[in-house]
Amino acid sequence: MADYPARVKIVEVGARDGLQNEVSVATEAKIALVNALKDAGLKHIEAGAFVSPKWVPQMADSAAVIQGFTRSDDVEISALTPNLKGAELALENQVDEFAIFTAASEAFTQKNINCTIEQSIERFRPVVDLAQKNNIKVRGYVSCVVGCPYQGAVQPEQVLAVCKQLLSLGCYEISLGDTIGVGTPKKVQQLLTLLLQHIPADKLAVHFHDTYGQALTNIHTALQMGIATVDSAVAGLGGCPYAKGASGNVATEDVVYLLQGLGIECGIDLERLAKAGWTICDALGKTPSSKVSLALKQTCQS
């Protein structure tokens, strides 16, 4: 029997990483989504991104969404803060946690933010300094931990080097992102075997995209290896911009169903969660990509 964690923390990224890759929806729909996620029991919600509206118009109303959300002392709201200006805006809007991002692939970093990995991490120093002065936690995202759309395979040693840099910079947790969803259990096992020799399990999270339908089995592998933080998006929101028509983030409903089946606590009401997904999908004019959500919907309608 695998030695699973007794409890798993789910970081809900649907309102940011999910909606960022969907058509724009009304601010009111986003606020309703974040409130519904909170009511379903989610305690860690990534609600927006303080980035240039020119480049990411879907996130232009992040301040309004965070201000419109009904605050609760036991719910942490995070936002993407790629530079000092973004961090200052996040601070003004009482964000509980900053999120910064780089990649384990030099080719991906050059294509996306026009700099090296080293330079991208240096850019975050003022963000982390501001956070530390204001007692705000900083979470680091590492994209392309298994594969890159430009470079191909990414070696675990490269991922380890980037994770170490982010931890020494001041990140309390590193989210390992399989950005194009090419990971398989064997690759995930190889990656985590190396990382866990150098980094405690409680400083690592997994963030799998479901492009090739492997996200849940990859999460299961990570759970077996002691990882107890999982990123996911309600209804499987978000596409993969590097694989046209492919599904994006693993669906929170599917992750919760898996955890419940394994007897792992996560504190989430699955039915309320599914309803939150149905509502935002109606606003987007799309169907949830979550198998569990669709099955529950069928049950409710029959």
UniProtKB/TrEMBL annotation:
A Gene Ontology BP annotation from the UniProt entry: L-leucine catabolic process
Root EC class: lyase
Residue ranges of domain Pyruvate carboxyltransferase in the record: 8-274
Pathway stated in the Swiss-Prot or TrEMBL entry: Metabolic intermediate metabolism; (S)-3-hydroxy-3-methylglutaryl-CoA degradation; acetoacetate from (S)-3-hydroxy-3-methylglutaryl-CoA: step 1/1
Recorded superkingdom: Bacteria
PANTHER family: HYDROXYMETHYLGLUTARYL-COA LYASE
Family statement drawn from the similarity comment of this UniProt entry: Belongs to the HMG-CoA lyase family.
Protein name in the entry: hydroxymethylglutaryl-CoA lyase
Organism (species): Pseudoalteromonas peptidolytica F12-50-A1
